[in-house]
Amino acid sequence: MKCPARTRALIAVSCLFTLLAVGCPGETPKPGPAGSGPAPTGTKRIVILTNGDDPFWDACEAGAMKAEEELGLTGQGYAVTFDRADFTDKGQVDKIKQYALQKDLVAFGISVFNPDSPAVAKELKALQDRGIKVVTIDGDMNREKYRDTRFAYLGTDNIVGGRELGRAGKALTPDGSKFAFFVGNTGAANAIARMEGFVEGAGEKFTEVERLEDRGDRPTARKNVQDALDRHPDTNMLVGIWAYNTPQAVAVVKDRKIRDKEKVLCFDSAEASISAMKDGNVDVMVVQNPYQMGFIGVKLLKALVEDDKAIVNEMYPTYSHEGTNDLFQTELRVVVPNAESPIKADLFEKDTVFMTLEEFEKWLKERGLTSS
């Protein structure tokens, strides 16, 4: 029996509604980064994107989420997303493009992996052209070429941090040392500044033998230490520039049983570096405050969205894209194993906080952190 045309049409419409209700195969939403779940209609999203995936960023994420809570952002219609790239230009570009498609994006903070990347610069400029507020956190764009791709920089003054680590090295070996640098990317703005600062702070008696990059790959980071020691057996100081570099140096020194010969200095306090200092295998840590970066980063981005001049002017009282007028310096600490260390507080700038490891661990515990 043939169905009347009207009946066939009703059946077709019914089937269509059934398909729409069930959905298409393979479209199950994938889990995303912290705070990246579906946002209510009208939500204004603030995103912070790191240069890569490392425990260093755990404290920054904790600070960002604390800002969301303490500033009452959810009740004001905001949502904070904290995401991690993969230590590549492409990884950051892909992430920026992904967030650019989200209609609720109002502000974007980024720790730049490669400060000279024209692709990253292009995407950040495109965000700004749409009215999205952009700041750099911990890692800046090349200020000579791409300063206008962000409103301002927030993070450590890495030249100062490098100088402080160099001064610490000088106190450990007053007669000088032959040293090697280890870092993820020798071209990153923070890496360049830290290494230049170290050379300044350590002085003329110190000789750099190599600076090696690993592009965020841990096995390469370890091999770099081995290779540097093989090529320069008279090296007696190893300097970790990014958080994960020092645990690799410690491992090689322990394997070769050369701790009596090698001084180990580091930027940042990875959990493994803290443990190594406890065991007598790290001589000094210059420590940033990524928790503060996350908290103040969210606070600044919200202020920019709302044109809150009081907060912006407090952070950047002489704001311009010249000199240091668009740079906000977060806290810096020097951590030594104990009071018997030859490294003393009076060696450092007045704003640098000096701590023993015991004092530093107490500071971390008060904030629910295991690294910084």
Automatic annotation (TrEMBL):
Keywords: Signal. One of its GO terms (molecular function) is carbohydrate binding. Residues 1-23 form the signal peptide. It is found in: Cell envelope. It holds the Pfam family Peripla_BP_4. One of its GO terms (cellular component) is outer membrane-bounded periplasmic space. It comes from the Bacteria. Residues 47-306 form the Periplasmic binding protein domain. PANTHER family: ABC TRANSPORTER PERIPLASMIC-BINDING PROTEIN YPHF (PTHR30036:SF7), D-XYLOSE-BINDING PERIPLASMIC PROTEIN (PTHR30036). Belongs to the bacterial solute-binding protein 2 family. This is Ribose transport system substrate-binding protein. It comes from Planctomicrobium piriforme.
